[in-house]
Each structure stands twice: as C-alpha cells, then as structure tokens.
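Bit of a strange request maybe. I'm writing a small parser for structure token strings and I need a real example to test against, not something I typed by hand. Could someone generate the tokens for this chain?
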Amino acid sequence: MCTSIAMQNGEFYFGRNLDLHQNFEEQVVVTPRNYPFLFRKTKPLPRHFAIIGMASVKEGYPLYAEATNEKGLCIAGLNFPDNAYYPKDETQGAYNLSPFELIPFLLGNCENLQSARETLKRIRLIHLPFNAQTPLTPLHWHIADKTGSIVLECTQAGLAVYENPFGVLTNNPPFPFQCDYARTYAHLSNRFTPRENTFSLGLDAVGLPGDYSSPSRFVKSAWLLNNTPKLRSEQERVAHFFHLLSAVAPVYGSVFTAKNQPHYTLYSSCINADTGIYYYRRYTDLEIRAIRLTDYALDEKELFLLP
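Reply from user aminoacidic:
Good idea to test on real output. This should exercise your parser:
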C-alpha cells in the first residue's frame, strides 16, 4: 500500500506515503553526479544528473523508493503485487534493466518527462534480483515533472506507459481500472448547496471513499488534489501537500497484512522539484525535515547518507 501525488501549484511538488509493515533501513540518500551507477546488463553511467530521495543502501548501491534529479524529474515505485511481471529473457538493442535499476537509470539520464517517455521506448525490465537475500519487489512507477505525469506498468501483457491526468497513483488494480473507477465519482463537489435539515458542510462530497483500499485512496487523493486552491508560499504548499498525504495514510492498527502485521505509513515525503528540497516526516515524529540537494558537493563520487 502506497500513494504518490504530483502537484503543480506555483512550483512543482512530488511525494508519497510509504506504507509497509516494517522499516527497510531507509534513509535520505544524495547521489552526486560522479557516483558510478553500474547496471547488470546495460552500460554503466560514470557521470549523470545528481539525485536525492529515500533509499536503502545495499553493497554501496542506493535502492531508491522515490527520488528526484537536479533537473526536476521525479519517480516513485509503488507496490504492485500479483500484476507486476518481469520476463527473464533479454532483448538485443534494448536497455535491459532490473526493476531496482530503473529509478537511477531514468533519473541519471533524463532531464524531463518527455526525455523519460522516449527512453522508456527502449527499456526492457527483466527478472534479475539484486542478490539472493534481496528478491525483486513487484512495482509500478509514477513518473512526473512540472509538465505532467505518466505511469509505467510491466505485466504479462508487456511494458505499458499511460498518461496520468489525475496526478496520483496507488497500488492494485492496474492503472486503467483506477482511471475508470475514479470517473464514477466525477459528480462529487466541494461546493455548498443550501438544503433543509443539513447536518453540516460537505454533503456534496457524500460518497467520497474513506477506506484504505487502493481504489479508494486513488479516488480520494485525486479528488483532494483536483480541489486544491492556488497557494501562495512554500510553507503553505508543503503543509498542504502533507495534508493531502495524511488524508489517505493508514493509521497504525487500521490495516493488517495476511500475516497479521500492522500495515501503516512509515513516512511521507514531499519534494519541491524546482528547488531540489526533499521534505519528509516519519509516523512517530510529525516534525517535517528538509534536505536541500544543492547543499552537497554534487561533483563527488561517494554517496551522501543521511539517516
């Protein structure tokens, strides 16, 4: 369970809820331009765009959950079980990548969404785990910049790229279903309609989903994002973005896994992609922390790890 949001409001903001039943040794990681990205089946990137985001680091390699590069292109990987499918065979002439390599490859190479669209035409995602102790996670991806959003899904039908007019992504079912489902709520409104014997404000939005299922979180986050007014300052925009995420964040104890483990929002993030500031807050600490990409020596070769 996860939710990601792309918001154009004065500046471009992108972020997500990371919903899981346990921590995954996550930390904010800055990858400078000269850190050598090595890929199993594709030529390495000795120099690339600088990147900041949340990742776990294994064997010195950043496994990003979500990130942005210095040009403002953003990506988040969201859980996509039972639907994600990665073939084992390679394709000659393609960029054959493991799913864990997708974020560094795209953010390292592409300066904007249009460049990512073109690059994705040559990408083939293959079944290649990081190591024996780190199996592949079934994912689909929300990719966005200030010009728009797309969704990337790799299923048994192949690799598909969808334009995303909603600016949000959750988990299963596949993205086309989420779009059709969301349109059934197009009649909801945030306006006030005079009625007799009304209980309070907000009745024009009666029926807006409030549970934590993926389709419900998709509808609610898309509706809230679509009704976001023009905000005037960085403080207002960042605060509002975290409120959007909070509205669809599972509370500890509200959702359990098949193994009876509590499934909740470990952290929420908000990236100002125009300025390269990565904001985040954890479930147990509501203080918002901010890390600016340009505060680091971006021509170095070693990762900057910020637990």
